[in-house]
Specification:
The chain is mainly beta. The chain has one helix spanning 163-173, and strands at residues 2-4, 7-10, 21-24, 27-36, 50-54, 76-81, 96-105, 110-112, 127-132, 135-145, 154-158, 191-192, 195-196.
């Protein structure tokens, strides 16, 4: 998802191959570089986070990050993604959202949702959101499933755990000013590797789906 006009935030495992562009609102946008967290290890959720710096600045709204958010079990959150509605579905990308809660906290990750209110294939790299006074903030990145895909709580990497790396990288690599006041906007859709990564205003659907 776009967290700044020149920054797409996603999972590290979605950045395994070379990426030269992303698609935003139906338009191919060049990518200058992508970075994965240096502490990321394939197959482990901790530090499964990364970003791409765009060569052009899309004229679309972005979604701010809530890097100071601290998860607790029972905290209300929203999962969002463009993945499938079920494990066997084969559907065109459609934004789906589900309101749920944090159900567990692990070492470098947390679990949110339930077997029926969760993420599914294609949702990796999408956001976990919290509502603060009517504004939505990105507080985590969907990494995968805690057990059965599309049928167990979602495994999420909290952005706050890697806030220092993100802040340093954004300050070094990006060229657009960062605004924490930017809101959930219309029509930006970025496709990076294994998932659609942007943010759209859309009506809520009964469930979302990671990988």
């Amino acid at each position: 998802m776009l967290v700044r006009r020149d920054i797409v935030l996603t999972s590290a495992h979605c950045l395994a191959g070379p990426i030269d562009h992303v698609t935003i609102a139906g338009t191919a946008t060049s990518v200058i570089k992508c970075e994965r967290h240096p502490g990321y290890e394939p197959g482990r959720p901790a530090h499964d986070i990364g970003y791409c710096v765009l060569g052009d600045l899309p004229a679309v709204a972005t979604l701010a990050m809530g890097l100071d958010w601290r998860p607790i079990v029972g905290a209300p959150v929203t999962l969002a993604g463009f993945g499938q509605s079920s494990a066997l579905a084969r559907e065109p990308p459609t934004l789906r959202m589900v309101d749920t809660t944090v159900v567990g906290i692990g070492d470098g990750f947390l679990a949110s949702g339930s077997p029926t209110a969760t993420a599914c294939r294609g949702d990796s790299g999408g956001p976990m959101l919290v509502n603060r006074d009517g504004a939505l903030y990105v507080v985590g990145i969907i990494e995968g499933a805690t057990a059965a895909i599309c049928g167990s709580p979602t495994q999420v990497v909290p952005t706050g755990l890697d806030r220092d790396w993100l802040a340093a990288g954004f300050a070094t690599d990006s060229k657009a000013p960062f605004s924490r006041g930017q809101r959930w906007g219309l029509g930006c859709a970025a496709l990076v590797a294994c998932t659609l990564l942007a943010v759209l205003r859309a009506r809520r659907a009964p469930r979302v789906r990671p990988r």
